[in-house]
Specification:
Strand content of chain A: 35-45%
CATH architecture of the largest domain in chain A: 3-Layer(bba) Sandwich
Shape of chain B: elongated
Helix content of chain A: 10-25%
Distance between the termini of chain A: 61 Å
Structural class of chain B: alpha+beta
Number of domains of chain A: 3
Radius of gyration of chain A: 22 Å
Number of strands of chain A: 27
Helix content of chain B: 10-25%
Largest sheet of chain A: 7 strands, mixed
Order of helices and strands of chain B: EEEHEEEEHEEE
CATH architecture of the largest domain in chain B: Roll
Distance between the termini of chain B: 60 Å
CATH topology of the largest domain in chain B: CPE0013-like fold
Number of helices of chain B: 2
CATH superfamily of the largest domain in chain B: CPE0013-like
Strand content of chain B: 35-45%
Number of helices of chain A: 8
Oligomer: heterodimer
Largest sheet of chain B: 5 strands, mixed
CATH topology of the largest domain in chain A: FAD/NAD(P)-binding domain
CATH superfamily of the largest domain in chain A: FAD/NAD(P)-binding domain
């Protein structure tokens, strides 16, 4: 089956849904959305907890409700959707090969493509925990799907490794469903998730959060029987003699998310080694013109609201691209992560900024810090902009608007750096 | 005088708020960046409330469960008690988002509502 579309979006989660609706609003016709699951919404339907939408809708919603706001709108629009459809290849000249049960093999030619495939969880193998290989070891998101969608409880006595948001949310969820969560272990000296989740998921239920701790060994014949945990030093090395045993039948892993970029890499698009997503300009356009990326496939977000915002940036950019309505700068500006900045997105700015349109930068810090200034510096270390923040932590993405000084065509680099004060 | 430390969760900023109190009387609230912080800290000090999100069993639905939440926040101390009552609830498909699954949950006066749609097993779905 051969098809032609102006815009093909790969992934029907919050990013893909936002792109579809915003692109249509910006005059893009002939849109196809491809989703590998049976339903739209991506990971949102299994995130049954509240806390979504506070930024975007200014009200508090659960994950399924947040997803439904967009899905309902999509139903009203003339956007083609194919679910249970797996994309197996994308070529740089924007041909997509996909498969599903009804159509068989699909060959799709697109004028623009948006990568919105999201991310996946790191596993035990990714962090190489020694020991036996019994049943009872799950990523937190898998356990979340079992409990919230399929109706199975994965275990009764639980140890959670990693204080990422999903780990903390699952610690509460399992407690509410009658399991005993014995501890949440965090190898770093700080929580990597949102403060709200630490308070409402762990503190509320007196679940101990042990910083500077990790699992050194998993034991059990058929099923997990116990874990050996130990304290780590500043260099994350186990301190001998601090080992203790915790009996449990289940281990949940919340040890990080990796953008799902196999398709991106195969078509030769360069990935950022820190974000593990493609390198993009302010339109979230990759180094191949007309191929964009947004949401967790670009960099891992902590709020779905930010994903929606990023999807809308791309929706508008696709509209401009198809209308050929954009002007390149004589040279791009590179955004360079400086002191205590892990990464910033976009990585470069390619276009002349239209008046009164501001560019938003998203970034993550390496270490928590209080009462700081985020400074934007030019090539000669002159301060282009300075932003006060009371507190920055790696668990919470920082966003700020670039000042209009960017219209200066000589600017080559902007370095972001965090200073006390 | 007693000091309580509360982390505000009104927004992702997470202000560290200090409440000074004498008995049940609040003397001062400091550390909040916006007025929401005062309201939050007072609430946490007097009667902490939480929205309870969970799931309810669905009969003849295309999914075995429907996600639900308390329409308003309920007292934190009642969360586990509410879970016991919710465990015994079953609902027949189709379920519509926003549908009241149980009113006056454990005498709180707060309703339990569905947070997603679940169709019947035999219903043909449209586009998706």
């Amino acid at each position: 089956m051969k098809l032609e579309y102006d815009l093909v979006i790969i992934g029907g989660g919050p990013a893909g849904l936002a792109v579809a609706l915003e692109a249509e609003k910006n005059g893009v016709e002939n849109i196809l959305l491809l989703e590998r699951d049976k339903y739209l919404g991506g990971i949102l339907p299994q995130c049954i907890h509240n806390g979504f939408g506070l930024q975007y809708f200014k009200e508090e919603l659960t994950g399924p409700e947040y997803a439904e706001r967009f899905i309902a709108k999509l139903n009203d629009n003339r956007i083609d959707v194919k679910t249970e459809t797996m994309v197996i290849k994308i070529t740089p000249n924007k041909r997509i090969i996909a498969i599903n049960r009804n159509d068989g093999l699909l060959h799709i030619q697109a004028k623009t493509i948006v990568l919105a495939m999201g991310c996946r969880e790191r596993t035990r193998e990714a962090i190489a925990i020694p020991g036996n290989r019994p049943a009872g070891i799950f990523t937190a998101g898998t356990a979340q799907r079992y409990i919230n969608i399929e109706g199975y409880i994965p275990g009764r006595e639980v140890v959670v490794l990693g204080s990422g948001d999903i780990g903390m949310i699952m610690a509460r969820r399992m407690t509410l469903e009658g399991a005993k969560v014995k501890a949440v272990l965090e190898i770093m000296p700080f929580s990597t998730g949102l403060i709200r989740n630490k308070v409402q998921c762990l503190d509320d239920f007196n679940i101990p959060l042990k910083f500077n701790h990790t699992i050194t060994r998993i034991e059990g014949r058929k099923r997990v029987e116990r874990v050996i945990v130990a304290q780590v030093d500043k260099n994350l090395q186990v301190i001998p003699g601090t080992e203790e045993e915790i009996s449990c039948d289940t281990i949940l892993l919340s040890v990080g998310l990796i953008p799902e970029n196999e398709l991106t890499g195969e078509m030769g698009i360069k990935l950022d080694p820190v974000t593990r997503g493609p390198i993009v300009n302010e339109n979230r356009e990759t180094e191949i013109e007309g191929i964009f990326a947004c949401g967790n496939v670009l960099h891992v977000h902590d709020l779905a609201d930010f994903v929606t915002e990023e999807g809308e940036i791309v929706g508008r950019a696709v509209g401009k691209f198809l209308k050929r309505n954009r002007k390149y700068r004589s040279q791009p500006i590179k955004i360079v992560p400086g002191d205590n900045i892990a990464y910033a997105v976009p990585q470069h700015i390619d276009f002349i900024v239209p008046e009164r349109k501001k560019i938003k930068l998203f970034m993550r810090v390496k270490k928590p810090a209080e009462r700081v200034r985020i400074n934007l510096l030019d090539d000669k270390d002159r301060v282009l902009g300075s932003y006060k923040k009371r507190i920055v932590t790696p668990g919470e993405m920082v966003s700020l608007y670039l000042p209009e000084i960017l219209l200066d065509d000589k600017l080559k680099n902007i370095t972001i750096s965090i200073k006390k004060g | 005088m007693k000091q309580n430390k509360i982390i505000c969760v009104s927004c992702p900023k997470g202000c560290r708020i200090t409440i000074q109190s004498k008995g049940e009387e609040i003397i001062s609230i400091t550390g909040n960046d916006c007025p929401k912080g005062i309201k939050y800290a007072e609430g946490e000090f007097i009667n902490p409330l939480r929205i309870l999100p969970t799931t309810v069993k669905v009969i003849s639905g295309e999914l075995p469960l429907v996600s639900v939440k308390t329409e308003k926040a309920i007292p934190k101390r009642l969360l586990l008690k509410a879970m016991v009552e919710i465990a015994n609830i079953e609902v027949k498909a189709p379920v519509k988002i926003g549908q009241v699954i149980k009113d006056d949950l454990i005498g709180t006066g707060v309703s339990l509502v569905a947070t997603r749609n679940v169709k019947r097993t035999d219903s043909k779905h449209k586009k998706f």
